[in-house]
């Protein structure tokens, strides 16, 4: 019995293994490493399109060698610079007189004339480079019978204050006074004598405007009756930028017009 039991135990566990344990299974041999994949050349990839068709050949500057590509880029840059310089010179030749044209006028003329001469101007007329103010004073007959002369009232400054901060300034505030003075100066000589038939009309137009403005904005005029008015213009040069180095006078130049007698209908409130 014992021998049979021992033989049965040996049959289950093996002759060398201890009782109650299983023998270790034999490990499988390791798998061989994968074969390396050789990279596909870039030329082979670019030579075939995704659909399998051959790629199109390079054209233009891209088809050139690197040395010629650099030369082409430099040539294009030179053409672009020359075009910009030419456009700038032509622009300055037709633009109004400014700091650049005053300093480099000879170089601009040498570039433009005679091959690129222009027969037009950028602005017509040239933009103003001066500040022109219209000022007025009046002789006022007071209720006690005396006559008082007011100080100079700067009507242009009043218009400027009315425009500042206004999103929609009226056309009258912006242009009425300026156009009236322009109308007068174009129909009168430097001696303030009228030229042509419109001279008296421009004088009457300017006089009525300043009388109306004096009644509206001058405290002394509102207390009495305006008998005479005198208008003058104050012209001051616009200062140039600091970098220009240009020097202009900042002293105002006055053009004083003669005293004008206010007519009865104007003095009695016809233009109030």
Automatic annotation (TrEMBL):
Compositionally skewed regions (Pro residues) per UniProt: 26-39
Supply the Pfam families for this chain: DUF5819
Superkingdom of source: Bacteria
Xref: InterPro entries: DUF5819 (IPR043857)
User: Which positions, given as ranges, span the membrane?
Assistant: 70-94
Q: Where is this region: Disordered?
A: 1-42
Supply the alphabetized keyword list.
Membrane, Transmembrane, Transmembrane helix
In its UniProt entry, what is this protein called? Answer: DUF5819 family protein
């Amino acid at each position: 019995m014992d021998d049979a039991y021992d033989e049965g135990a040996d049959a289950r566990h093996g002759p060398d293994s201890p009782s109650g344990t299983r023998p270790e299974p034999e490990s499988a041999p390791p798998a061989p490493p994968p074969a390396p994949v050789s990279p596909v050349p870039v030329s082979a990839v670019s030579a075939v399109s995704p659909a399998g068709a051959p790629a199109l050949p390079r054209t233009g500057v891209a088809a050139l060698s690197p040395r010629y590509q650099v030369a082409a880029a430099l040539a294009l840059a030179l053409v672009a610079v020359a075009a910009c310089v030419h456009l700038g010179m032509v622009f300055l030749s037709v633009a109004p007189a400014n700091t650049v044209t005053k300093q480099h006028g000879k170089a601009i003329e040498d570039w433009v004339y005679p091959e690129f001469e222009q027969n037009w101007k950028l602005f017509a007329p040239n933009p103003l480079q001066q500040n022109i103010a219209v000022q007025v004073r009046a002789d006022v007959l007071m209720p006690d019978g005396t006559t008082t002369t007011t100080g100079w009232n700067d009507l242009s400054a009043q218009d400027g204050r009315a425009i500042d901060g206004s999103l929609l300034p009226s056309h009258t505030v912006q242009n009425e006074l300026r156009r009236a003075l322009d109308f007068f100066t174009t129909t009168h000589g430097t001696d303030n004598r009228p030229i042509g038939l419109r001279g008296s009309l421009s004088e009457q137009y300017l006089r009525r405007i300043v009388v109306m403005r004096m009644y509206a904005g001058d405290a002394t005029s509102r207390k009495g009756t305006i008998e005479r008015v005198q208008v003058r213009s104050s012209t001051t040069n616009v200062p140039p930028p600091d970098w220009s180095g240009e020097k202009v006078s900042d002293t105002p130049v006055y053009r004083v017009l003669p005293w004008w007698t206010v007519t009865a209908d104007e003095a009695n409130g016809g233009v109030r």
